[in-house]
Here is the input.
Amino acid sequence: MHLKSLMSEDPASATGSIRSQVVSRFHKAQKYAFELYTLLESPESNATSNDLLEAAAYVFSFRGLEAFEKKHWEEALRAFAVSRTIYSVLSTNTKNEVYQEQLVGTVDPSIRYSAYQLQLPRSMDIVAISRQYFLREDSPRIVEAIEKLDSQAFTEQMDVDVPEAGSVTSVTWRGRTASVEEANISIALYEAHTAEAAYNSQEQQGSTDAFDAVLLAWQDAVDATRKAIDERKAEGMSTTEQKMQNLHLIWTVVNYSMICWRVGRNRVMISNIMSGPKKPKKDGQAPSEEVSGKKLGHLKEEIALYDAILQV
Here is the structure.
């Protein structure tokens, strides 16, 4: 993994001999990991189901890395699909951050890049890809161990159905239309539009709290789009490719929507401050220092909100 990271930092160092050395080391690591798994299977080891699953995930991770370096993309996907399913179940059941680090740092990026090389539809998320390439009939013991920890590990994934998200298939910005191919972005856009519709249907739209659900939904759309762009860059996709241009257009749309709703929220807050309850003043009595101080505080709040509007 160290050699692999050095090649990523300095592509010029990725000579044929270095690549062969990396493949050879991954092959040896896979072999030793499998020996460990075999030892843990024996009753004398007193290994738990978690131990066996972790060892299996280790085996398939190295198997996937070896296939990845050989550019055997389908073989890599099949191996990473097993390790991802195991690490996901272990992460959920044990709350151990190590498993999540394995997913985020190695497994998920490798799955996404292999899927890109195989030209799989962008609408397929990583969970769907893992489900498709996990050949359960080839690993019955592993499947059994997974289902012991989580009986719904496979059925839940297969029962996921979000047809509404499919309705957000494109966005338009100043006469240009971009197709939405990423499942996560499609879902986030649908939820943002749903939150907007819920806000517009309210009788009282002057409450700043009413904005929070909309702002949160658009923030999720912004985050999903940013993540997709970063992943495509990591895969080496050029900015001139149509898929990357579509993502940048979506990025413009979601950020513009986010800004509009932020400005709207700040304007409502200013209006609420200006029309706030006034303390009645007795005839002939000058306002107290406390009242003047509150007024000054309100003016400062208004200035801060106007400044926030200008900043966005």
About this structure: Residues 156-166 have pLDDT under 50 and may be disordered.
